[in-house]
Amino acid sequence: MVKNAALLMIDMQKGFLDPASPCCIAGAAATVPACAAAAEFCRREGIPVFFVTRSYRADGSDVEHSRYQAWAQGGKPLSPGCPEAISAEPPEELRPREGDYALFKPRFSAFFHTELDLILRRLGVDTVLLAGTTTPNCIRASCYDALSLEYNVAVLSDCTSSATEEIQQANLRDMANVGARILTLRELTEGAELPDSVRAARERRYG
Length: 207
Hints:
Rossmann fold
């Protein structure tokens, strides 16, 4: 069983799930049941669940330059006043519950300009489980930042999504190559043991 872990559920919002949104990720909607099951499992096991999501200002002043044109011309998704189908709201199955944590992030990584690292360290977390969308952007950026901050990282492959299966598999391989563990939700729920590189490094340094 994963000890001292937290689940980071990233960007599972209508604006990334609905085909009407210019931000829609083709494979994301299909992962909602698995993501909801992962959150339920972690709650039962006492693993903190973090919902880390994106929200833009109505005037677009915080939208990435690379996305601004598509955002402005596509109904201003993920911002106040946009149609509900492309809003920052989560699907019903993935609404935070009592005891969960909800954070907004201004860019791809869940750690960039958020209090996530502070809260995780206060909770004694040394392992993050990554789920959500999109694998080559927000999942990957969060993975690399977590590794840089010396967390153990596991990516739940069937709880993440990309525009194509080819993109999904390529990015999972890249993250595995830099030290993340790739596993399925079933492997997690059946008690997969994760290598604790954080503890191993401490023991090598300090004995």
